[in-house]
Write a structure and sequence with these properties.
Radius of gyration: 22 Å
Bound molecules: pyridoxal-5'-phosphate
Number of strands: 16
CATH superfamily of the largest domain: Type I PLP-dependent aspartate aminotransferase-like (Major domain)
Strand content: 5-15%
CATH architecture of the largest domain: 3-Layer(aba) Sandwich
Shape: globular
Helix content: 25-40%
Distance between the termini: 43 Å
Number of helices: 16
Largest sheet: 7 strands, mixed
Strand order of the largest sheet: 4-12-11-10-7-5-6
């Protein structure tokens, strides 16, 4: 099949996620990936690109990794999939034990599998609500989320993170409920200049909301780093503060580590860096090293025990591919590789920080944010006033399109350019990616200048 035919079929037949298809179908030629090798991907035209966002936050060890490939083929020679409804399988059992032991302080010993981050979140939400129902507290049936956090695109996940831009046709399905303020230090909603001041004010307001609504709240759900909301790390101490508030108010704490889990922030889980054990923890993305769709919701003994006893107490929830053997086998091998990889991360994180620092001087960069391998560079129309680009201007694409010309694949979110390389990238590969990122920011200056002028003149809505 010719590359041109494949690209034409891709643009016509594949309905891409989170993609305005008229622009995609009419736009520049798409990248249609044919193979991967290490931290690079090759398209059907033979061009090689660095995977600068880990294939949208999944990839840990690179692509086409012999040890991971082997884990899948070994398992394939035994069985690809059998149900987890009322029976077990070997890789899912071994992986559950491994996750339970690796969970923060070993405190989450029970593992409910699913197949995407959103389903891991749905399960956490339903578990939290039924936890209280099983205790005879049916009035505690709401879950409070944080402003601009993102938990996936299924209905329950949208309910705790409604977004007017993305969810406008569905807002009538999303009941009104309180939302707590996320400590976005660069644009702190409170009158303070410091990240710690912003954290404390956000905690205080969250406490006030809990005082008011705890009687109706089953749980609070939070991202340790606000990912899709613009790659915004919560200042250190925020998770620990939430843990204390939830304990005080008899509300479960759900930490969504779908993006942050498996070393992405440095330690295995973001919760580890604050010594926090949530009641429920959602995992996905990097769980299989970015190879196969396996997700998991981990629960404490207290939560799990509430589902024992009467038949009606059980959690009647499941998905066809729950506990898929191929996925669990590759997840186990990925965790083996992570043991050697984790100690190498601090040096690489420092390298990224050092290389990103000069970009803070770029005329259209307002804020450079980083937690581990999760980096976001927020573009602004005016650095002095922090004036935003309008949503429709999509300035991040000026940078990502330039990056593609330099052989680096990025996927921006609105005004934020995301850089999130695979954790296994060598220092040399990180330098190569950061050279390309820097070049892309340089090349994008004229386009950003035009967009900024339009934004400041109010000609883009
Ligand atoms: C924090 C967080 N939770 C949930 C999800 C949803 O995961 P999935 O796309 O696998 O459904 C994402 C995806 O980006 C995420 O970043």
């Amino acid at each position: 099949m010719s590359p041109d035919t494949l690209k034409a079929w891709d643009q016509h037949h594949v309905w891409h996620p989170f993609t305005p298809m008229s622009e995609y179908a009419d736009g520049d030629e798409a990248v249609v990936v044919e193979r991967g090798e290490g931290v690079r991907l090759q398209d059907v035209d033979g061009n090689w690109y660095y995977d600068g966002v880990s294939s949208v936050w999944l990839n840990v060890h690179g692509h086409n990794v012999p040890a991971l490939n082997e884990a899948i083929t070994e398992q394939l020679g035994k069985v690809a999939h059998s149900t987890l409804l009322g029976q077990g399988n070997v890789p899912a059992t071994r992986l559950a034990k491994r996750l339970a032991d690796a969970s923060p302080d070993g405190g989450l010993q029970h593992v409910f599998y699913s197949d995407s981050g959103a389903t891991a979140v749905e399960i956490a939400l339903k578990t939290a609500i039924q936890f209280w129902a099983n205790h005879g507290r049916e009035e505690k049936r709401q879950v409070m989320g944080f402003t601009h956090n993102y938990h996936g695109d299924t209905l329950g996940a949208m309910t705790v993170a409604p977004d007017e831009t993305f969810h406008w046709p569905f807002l009538h399905l999303l009941p009104e409920r309180p939302r707590a303020p996320y400590p976005y230090a660069y644009r702190c909603p409170f009158d303070t200049d410091t990240a710690s001041g912003c954290r404390d004010a956000a905690l205080e307001e969250t406490g006030r909301l809990l005082d008011e609504h705890a009687d109706r709240l089953a749980a609070l759900i939070v991202e340790p780093v606000e990912g899709a909301g613009g790659m915004i790390p919560a200042p250190e101490g925020f998770l620990a503060g939430l843990r204390a508030l939830c304990d005080e108010h008899d509300v479960l704490l759900i930490v969504d580590e779908v993006a942050t889990g498996f070393g992405r922030t440095g330690p295995l889980f973001a919760c580890d860096s604050e010594g926090v054990t949530p009641d429920l923890m959602c995992l996905g993305k990097g769980l299989t090293g970015g190879y196969l769709p396996v997700a998991a919701t981990l629960a404490t003994g207290d939560v799990y025990d509430a589902f024992l006893g009467e038949r009606d107490n059980a959690l009647y929830h499941g998905h066809s591919y729950t506990g898929n053997q191929l996925g669990c086998a590759v997840a186990l091998r990925s965790l083996d590789l992570l043991e050697d990889l984790l100690p190498t991360l601090p040096d690489k994180i420092a390298l990224i920080e050092e290389r990103l620092a000069p970009l803070a001087e770029h005329p259209f960069v307002g804020d450079v944010r980083q937690r581990g391998f999760m980096c976001g560079l927020e573009l602004v129309a005016d650095r002095d006033t922090k004036a935003r680009f309008p949503w429709k201007a999509q300035p991040g694409y000026a940078v990502s399109e330039a990056a593609r010309d330099h052989g680096l694949l990025l996927r921006p979110i609105g005004s934020t350019v995301i850089f999130m390389p695979p954790l296994a990238s060598t220092e040399e590969e990180l330098h190569a990616m950061l050279d390309r990122l820097e070049a892309a920011f340089d090349d994008a200056r004229p386009a950003l200048r035009t967009l900024a002028e339009d934004a400041l003149a109010g000609t883009v809505a």
